[in-house]
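Q: I'm writing a short explainer about WD40 repeat protein for a general audience and would like to include a description of its predicted shape. Could you first generate the structure from this sequence?
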Amino acid sequence: MNTETVAAGRAPTMGEIARAAQAKEAARHTIYLVGDERVGILPRDQAELMVTVAERLDARRDLMTQQSDKLGALLKFAGRLRDAMATAASSAVRLDVEPAEQAIATFLLTQARVRAATSATSRVRHVCKTCGNVVLSNPEYEKKVQHERRLRAGAQSVGMALGTAGISTIFMANTLLAFRKGPGWHCPRCSGLESDDGITVFCPRCKAQNDSEVLKTCRKCHYSFVAGVDVSDVWRPAAEVEVPPPAGERLGVELHLDDEPTMLAFLPGGGRMLTASHARSVQLWRIADAGAEPVWNASVGGLVKVSRPIVALSPDGQWVAIAKPQTPRVRLLRATDGVQVGEMVWALADGSTPTDLVFRPDSKALVIANSYVEVWDLTGRRWMRMKLGGMASPSRVAYSPDGTFIAAAGGTWSNSRLMIWNAATGALLATVPLHASIEDLAWTPRPEALAVAAGNTARLVGIPAGNQFGEFALDAQVTGVAVSPDGHYLAAASRDHSARVFDLRSWSEVARISRPSEVTAVAFAPDGRLAVGDDTNVVQFWSPPAEVAAIGSEVSHGQR
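A: Of course. Here's the predicted structure. Afterward I'll give you a sentence or two in plain language.
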């Protein structure tokens, strides 16, 4: 909301709310080309058209042999731009550019806007490879014919909806540059199915056909296609633009799960990872190469998907504990091969079942949350029971890395709380009201703080006093939190399609990793790499935040 509304102390109008929502949505689809002195701001559709222009030049590189060096630099930039958009499919994209790349970006944008401006007089040109016949086609006409055919066939809500203004010029230009022949295209002279394709643009002055891949002036009357194209609105002084932080470098490995990940945990050494998914599967992966496959797979059990399989990995990497749904049982598996080595069974008068599990830091005991918070040894003997004081079964439990404290959080949205106990005596030390849905807990390496995923925030709670001394606000529900091994960085997964990394020393965002869908889990490796899982069932790996922070400080130095 704007500062004038806040300063006036009045509620925003519906128009102001709508404009703010539109601005926020526009920002989610913006490309930032960040240089030392200037920042280019592009709508995503124009950036995509720039990449398509470059791809067309690459396809016709046989016609540009005298400019191969320039073409190589252009294609390299276009590839970087394409990759940046691919890893940030629905959020703002940042790409750091050199001065030479700024010139390339300006050239590609000029050509993209020329293609958009001339889309109404552009035609796809097919040159039959069999007989040499030249055929021009109009994708807009073909789309309308297909649409009318679907309507006549009675299909509803299928194909493209055409408004009174027809197809947008950007869509039209994208269609033209895609060179996709409709199904059943053939040469009308010889019925050949293979052709060399390009674009023909009719000059608005003399009506001559212009077939050049780089459209500058008419080949006949020298009419300038670029004279009316203005790209001065794109570049702005860097000091005037607030850009998203860099996402860091995405590493080559990807894990493809059978459903969205609900838990990610690195084993000691960082070469293996334990995952759990909504499809009830628990898997161990070796992540040394891009073609990672699970070493073993274990089912949580049950006939339907569970909201969150209840799984814990021991800190020493030896054991995996899995709670069986709707039963008072916990299976103990060997982490190396997934072989079950034991099962813990306990009898509770109220019939409650586990809601979360966590190992003690020495890996010799397990905390089980149900209608109590209990500590059990790995032979199935209970050592301690802590009452919840009226709180419903906790959704999350956590054990401080030094073994001093146990924390549990849960409850309803309006009545959630965090409880902290002395791990040695079971004495309750603090109860902290949180007033938000609790999705995850993560300790800092030292026991002075606990990160809590609470509603749309990642909060820091002091231990053992329970004072809330900081929070990071996100745009949607925070689904998971993780703290780096050195305690310097906090990663937060969110339903706003991003994982964000915050520096706990400067209280600033240092990286934002955007994904095409909701991010459901994050985890740090011992060496600082960050794993990010989303509900496209993919887990990706990113360079350590320390490297990202260094990049961010270098870029920011010239902006402030």
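A: For your explainer, you could say: The mean pLDDT is 81.
Q: Perfect, that's easy to follow.
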